[in-house]
Amino acid sequence: MKFSNVLAAVVLTATGCSDSPTNPDLPPRAVETFEVQSERAPSETVYSGTLRARQRSDLSFLRSGQVVELRKDLGESFARGEVLARLDSTELSFAVDELAATLLGAEAERADAQRIHDRLVVLGDRGAVSRAEIDTAIALLESATARVTSINAAIAQARKRLTEMVLDAPYDGQVVERLVEPPQTALAGQTVYRVIGDSGGLEAVVNLPVAALDLFVLGHRAEMAVRPSGITRSARVTEVGNAAGLSGLYPVTLALEDSSGLRPGLRVEVAARSEADSQARLSIPLTAYLSSPGNVGRVFLIDPGTGRISGREVEIGVISDAGIEIRSGLEAGDLIVARGLPWLREGQVVAPLGIGIRRFNE
Fold first, then answer.
1. Is 315 helix (H, G, I), strand (E, B) or coil?
2. Topology of domain 90-163, per CATH?
3. 3-state helix, strand, coil in the chain (%, to 5)
4. CATH 1.10.287 spans which residues of the chain?
5. What phi and psi, each to the nearest 5 degrees, are found at residue 50?
6. How many C-beta atoms lie closer than 10 Å to residue 186's C-beta?
């Protein structure tokens, strides 16, 4: 028997029942209905990330100074060992020159002391000079030698400082950011260039909720889609963060097995599959329940035989634009009211809006 005919018979019968909870003079209320059906959630959950170079560095000087030269601009390439930038080393160069001149004089004094020492030693063997004169010559030679050694050490230190005024490329690569400009003063350790290397390939950094970390263990292989091109590449998990960021998400790094045709900064999507994602679930429209405190809601279940509605509490799960997940309280095949719940009452007789309408939002 059709549902509309049953409802009509129920209404006619109800007019002769004095204990009916509804007004016998009122026709069944027309409502939009929804038949609960079992559906499968998407088998894969997708997480977004960004590509970056695996070989990357923030380059800085070891010493503070005024920047006098930056040889590379944004996007320019460089070779390993190539000079990228220089600090003003005028005073230090003068100091090295002065030390070099001082060294010449010290070496000359040491040569004189050596000759005097050698001559007195020969005369001492003949008994022509006293032991005290020989000891004095030895002391003068040792003093001159120590002075030469000290000056050489100062020169080596000054020349080392000169090399620290120059910024060399650590590998073949290109500039992705230039953070200072001449004649700014750069502090020791302050980033001057951000660079990436030509070798090493690319990797993706994806931020995941803690519940998804078990799906991305070290060595796990995942398929990655590059957006907006849609290119797919394989990647393996190389790092799993053990501390969440401000967003409460954990960073996971995946190294691409093939980086050809790609570049840093592109957005990627990584799919993760879990058993829970493949399980069947029940869901209802957003308008088909009355909210209650906690994760409980109330729906109106329609009796197909009588057309009467009865309230039922259900446990709700995830709420999204697509609908509300029902964890318990309903079964596949149940018929519920899809709209207008606040204007309904327990035991009221309803009729479907139109004939055979079962679709939500129609």
1. strand
2. Helix Hairpins (1.10.287)
3. 25, 35, 40
4. 90-163
5. -135, 140
6. 21
**Which residue intervals of the chain bear CATH 2.40.30.170?**
45-54+198-274
Helices (H), the chain: 3-14, 90-126, 131-163
Is residue 188 packed enough to be buried (19+ CB in 10 Å), middle (13-18) or exposed (0-12)?
exposed
What pLDDT is attached to residue 18?
Answer: 39
Give the amino acid at 246. L
Whole-model pTM over 0.70: no
Min mean pLDDT across 41-45, 93-97, 198-202, 261-265 is at 41-45
The CATH label, of 3.40.50.1100, 2.40.30.170, 2.60.40.730, 1.20.1270.10, for the domain at 45-54+198-274 is 2.40.30.170
Calculated CA dihedral for residues 88, 92, 97, 102, nearest 10 degrees: 170
Q: E strands within 202-262?
A: 202-208, 221-227, 232-240, 250-256
Architecture per CATH, 3-41+279-352: Beta Barrel (2.40)
pLDDT digits (tens, 9 = 90+) for 69-114: 999 999 999 999 999 999 999 999 999 999 999 999 999 999 999 9
Q: Are strands 77-78 and 56-60 parallel, antiparallel or unpaired?
A: unpaired
Report residue 75 as tokens.
Answer: 């996007």
Instruction: Give me the chain's average pLDDT, please.
Output: 86
CATH of domain 57-82+168-197: 2.40.50.100
Q: In which element (H, E) is residue 316 found?
A: strand 309-320
